[in-house]
Structures are given as structure tokens and as C-alpha cells.
Write a structure and sequence with these properties.
The chain is mainly beta and 107 residues long. The chain contains no helices and five strands. The protein starts with 23 loop residues before the first strand and ends with a strand.
């Protein structure tokens, strides 16, 4: 609502960006002897390497209780940068693709 400072809003009504993570694993087991087994496994976390944003600045600062002009917006009215870490900006990202190779010898 225009002119509101958000006091009528419910708890946790702001949601962050979604998470789209695909973890994949491929494995193959080999029998060397009757009692000795070799297992090869490759794991990929965030396999498609989608960027997962986190740390959204959801704090709005106002000039005063009577003047509801936000003071920490990212852009000014003319389009120039006001505050690089202002309201609504992203200041973090989750891990990129992580891959590992596992060799396991059982005896």
C-alpha cells in the first residue's frame, strides 16, 4: 500500500529467490576377487551450475516516522546509483558446481 511502512504486513511475507539445484551421481562397482570390490563414483552438486542468489537486503530505512521517504534505495529518482547495497540488492550467492570423484576399495 502506498505510504505504508509495512506494519500491517504479516510475519515473513517477503520470500527470497528460488533455489534450483540438481545433484547427480554416477557409480560403477567392479568385483576384483570374491572378497575384494572396487567402487568408482562421480558426484556433481549443482550439476547444471545455476546461479543461486542469497543474502537479499530486505531492510528499508525511512527518513522519519512522519516522512516515509526510503533512504536506502539502490537508485535515486534520476536513475543514478544511490547505495550499492541498498534495499532489494543481492549481496551473496550459494556455491557453484562442485564435483568429486570417489574410489573405494572394499576387502
Amino acid at each position: 500500500m502506498l505510504g505504508s511502512i509495512g506494519l500491517e504486513s504479516g510475519v515473513n511475507y517477503l520470500t527470497g529467490p528460488g533455489v534450483n539445484v540438481w545433484d547427480l551421481s554416477l557409480q560403477k562397482a567392479f568385483n576384483i576377487t570374491e572378497r575384494v570390490h572396487l567402487q568408482l563414483r562421480g558426484d556433481a552438486f549443482n550439476a547444471f551450475n545455476h546461479t543461486q542468489f542469497s543474502g537479499i537486503n530486505s531492510t528499508v530505512n525511512y527518513a522519519s516516522y512522519t516522512n516515509l521517504t526510503p533512504t536506502n534505495l539502490y537508485l535515486k529518482a534520476d536513475g543514478t546509483v544511490n547505495n550499492i547495497n541498498g534495499f532489494g540488492t543481492v549481496n551473496g550467492a550459494r556455491d557453484p558446481r562442485i564435483m568429486q570423484l570417489v574410489v573405494r576399495l572394499q576387502f
